[in-house]
Amino acid sequence: MLEISGLTIGAEGRDLVRSLSLMLPGQGITALIGPSGCGKTSVLKWLAGLLPDGDLRATGRALLDGAPIARPHPGLCYQPQSDALFPWLTVAENAALGLEIAGQSRSKALAQAAPFFAPFGLAGSEALFPAQLSGGMRQRAAFLRTIVQPGRFLLLDEPFSALDAVTRLRMQGWLLARLRERPRGVLLVTHDLHEATGLADRILVMAASPGRIVAEIPVTLPHDQRDEAAMAPLRETLKSLLLEEIPR
What's the pLDDT band for 170 if we cut at 50, 70, 90? Predict the structure, then answer.
């Protein structure tokens, strides 16, 4: 179990996020949704230990299995909105980088990442550099780098937003398949209600000014039964909640 307790993030004399607490199970996907500016990305960055210093101030605790942890933590794997690929590394080297940082040799890390290139639609691009890839391919490479890491929890900040609709659906399905093979806890930030209702086992709704969680909604329908008609009522409920929480 991963827990955030009493997280407050402030800047310029005001709270962006106030007294936010949540628990993330060790298996399944928790989607975090909310209006623009409510602090979804800031929560993920804080948890990953990447919240910028300077004018921002943050207080709160992160706990893993009930024990406080320092951030960043090897058990938490973070993927930002941008692909954040290193331009001087090949696609294969970028994909294996997290494994290297975790202590594996480069050769072993490259070998472990190699089987993922074909399912991600990146076969043949291993020796290319990021500048030689399309935007969608770069995003897939970044997601590959995240999914191969050994951490118990994945922190995903709109990981599919740069992909075209067909590739996005394919990658969403691929994520679910990988989680069936190797269950992990996922905290997914998304603005897409179709994505949230299609993937999540639980949806947390945030309000803004300041950012805080105002609703927790379980999604119990099996993934293979979540067609448009079945999920329409839940999406309407979420739309209503979000409209209520948009600052006027």
Answer: confident
Q: Is the dihedral of CA 48, 91, 31, 36 positive or negative?
A: positive
* 93-108 residue pLDDT tens: 999 998 988 888 999 9
Across the chain, mean pLDDT equals: 90
Pairing mode of beta strands 2-11, 14-24: antiparallel
Q: What is the C-alpha separation between 171 and 142, in angstroms, rounded?
A: 12
**3-state DSSP assignment of residue 111:** helix
Range of the domain at 125: 87-150
pLDDT tops 90 at residue 53: no
Nearest CA to 199 out of 174, 216, 181 is that of 174
As a whole number of angstroms, the distance between CA 138 and CA 143 comes to: 9
Q: Quick one: tokens of 142?
A: 């970044």
- Tokens 């979000």, located at residue: 242
**Same domain, yes or no: 164 and 99:** no
Are residues 46 and 157 in contact, defined by beta-carbon separation less than 8 angstroms? no
Kindly give, in sequence order, each residue whose CB lies less than 8 Å from that of residue 228, ignoring residues fewer than 6 positions away.
Answer: none
Judge if 70 and 32 occupy the same domain: yes
The burial of 134, by beta-carbon neighbours within 10 Å (0-12 exposed, 13-18 middle, 19 or more buried), is given as: exposed
- 96 shares a domain with 49: no
